[in-house]
Amino acid sequence: MAIVSQNNGLLAEFAVFPVESKNQAHLVQQVVESVESTLKQQPGFVSGTVVRSRDGLRVTSYIQWADQDSYIAMQPIHNFALPDAHLFEIFAEEPKESELHLSPDMKGLINFGIFKMKQPENQPRFVELFRQALQMVAGQPGLISTHTHRSLDGWRCINFGYWRTLEEYTAMDNNRPFSPLFGEMLELANNEYQKTLHEVVFTT
Fold it and tell me: What sections of the chain are H helices per DSSP?
């Protein structure tokens, strides 16, 4: 089982695959097969999780590695667009010392807030703002936990939020507590703040 926690000392690869909704199920199957047949056999592999978006337009793999030297990038999947793949570390979480246990039968829904830096040197300041935003979101009704990741290459930040219901997530999104910071954040990064939530379909 994959456990998302700042205390575990692991690195994680996010690979986000765009897909047409009619092809999502097939892509899920191919990503799962790639994890099982290739990545899982590599030294330093810790866990693999595959997540699908409820709108059918994305498949995301979340692969945990023991260290950077062990990292093996997700191989291209035949007949599908190349994923946006980077290696990440968790830099903040709410509640503090929280653990998110990923499994296909878990309750609730996952939100990925994906931010693409306009320049990699923007990431340190963006991380500062992200920490402040995270404190503003903490304690919102329906938020079970949130773990924020930064890519080691400086180009990405991704929030891994776990919400009890779509309705509670939507209520927060319609009145974002971090709005005072959002303007400066968008000066530093392009935003894919996804209103569509996700569900885990596979873990190993």
Answer: 24-37, 123-137, 166-173, 179-188
